[in-house]
Amino acid sequence: MKLKSEHREVRKALLLTEEKREEAEGQYKHAIQTCQKQMELAAQQTDELQARLAENLATNECLSTEVLEYQEINKRSHAAVARLERDVSTLETKERDGRRKCEALEDTLAEERAKAKERLRKQKEKSASENRKGLDNI
C-alpha cells in the first residue's frame, strides 16, 4: 500500500510536472508569437520610416534645388538693380549736363536777341536819319 501510495504521488507529481511543462510551453509559444508579431510590426515600421525618409530626402533635394535657383534669381535681381541704379545715376548726370547746356544756349540766345534788337534799333535809327536827310534835301 505504501508503494501504491508512493506510486500515486509520483504519478501525481509527474502529472503536475507535465501540466506545468505544457503550460510553460504554451507561454513560450505565446511569447515567441508575440515576439514574431512585434518583429513584423517593427519591420513594417522600419519600411515605412525608410520610405518616408526617402520621400523627405527627395523633397529636401527639390527644396535645395529651388533654394539654389531662387538664390541665383535673387543674385541676378540684385545685379540688375545695381545696374539700373548706375544707369539712373548716369542718366541723372546727363540730364543735369543737358539742362546746363540748354540754359547756356538760352542765355546765348537771349544775348543774341538783345544784340539783334540793338542792331535793328541802330539800323532803324540810321535809316530814319538817312530818310530825314533825304527829306531835308528835297
Can you describe this structure?
Residues 7-52 form a coiled coil. Keywords: Coiled coil. This protein has 138 residues and is mainly alpha-helical. 99% of the residues lie in helices and 0% in strands. The chain has one helix spanning 2-137. The chain is rod-shaped. The mean pLDDT is 93.
In DSSP terms, counting alpha (H) and pi (I) runs of 4 or more, how many helices?
A: 1
Termini Cα gap: 196 Å
β-strand percent reads: under 5%
Helical proportion?
Answer: over 70%
Give me the Rg, rounded.
58 Å
Low-confidence stretches: none
What's the rounded overall pLDDT mean? 93
Question: What sequence of helices (H) and strands (E) makes up the elements?
Answer: H
Major β-sheet, in short?
A: none
What is the overall silhouette?
Answer: rod-shaped
State the total count of DSSP E strands: 0
Keywords: Coiled coil
The gist of it:
The protein has 138 residues and is mainly alpha-helical.
Topology of helices and strands:
Layout lengths: L1 H136 L1
Keywords: Coiled coil
Distinctive features:
single chain, 138 residues, mainly alpha
